[in-house]
Amino acid sequence: MKLENIKACVFDAYGTLFDVNAAARAEQAALGDKWEDVASVWRLKQLQYTWLRSLQRRHADFWQVTGEALDFALANAEVTDPALRERLMNLYLTLSAYPEVKSTLEQLKSAGIKCAILSNGTPKMLSAAVDNAGIAPLLDGIFSIEDVGIYKPDPSTYQIAVDRLSVKPTEIAFQSSNGWDAYSAKAFGFNVIWCNRFGQAEERLPSSPDGQIRTLDDLPAIVGAI
Questions:
Q1: PANTHER family, per this entry (predicted)?
Q2: Which one of the listed residues 12, 19, 181, 210 is annotated catalytic?
């Protein structure tokens, strides 16, 4: 698998660069054997609320949505602990990056390929995660959907990367661990590599990603960076 004429690699943030389960995992002592359920439901409701708010045209930023999703997840697990809730939210600001993220970005930058994040996250959330991972010098842009006030997969969100990087959609390789995001970005016009970290089944949506990988280790070779 090889993509030609790639001038920029654009990454989704949560689940692609940053481990969305890291916050709940860090609080295993408090959550006990419920931590995995809390992490799973938290993420599911977080995404569902972005889609529902977009459909209703009732936008709230990702920090608020993340908090509301956590409230649901904790209530679903019958956990009532305001201090724990506060700790989990603070931990979400410093989610750990997956092990191969930094080296992948370094290889892409060395090859002269622009690197950027395009995420539902707020600028504050993304800056905190990027700083914690130590990858800020490797990025040419950190783009939030707050610029357009609607969540992915609305086409206007993908247009942000085109406008801000001054490249054509066909010159962008977009990477996401979320199948719905990968399929939607391909329908928009990007070259898309689905980083299918979790072994998800293929989506039943228009268009299909150009390829699948399990981690970002394989990306530099695909876009001609090595």
A1: HALOACID DEHALOGENASE, TYPE II (AFU_ORTHOLOGUE AFUA_2G07750)-RELATED, HYDROLASE, HALOACID DELAHOGENASE-RELATED
A2: 12
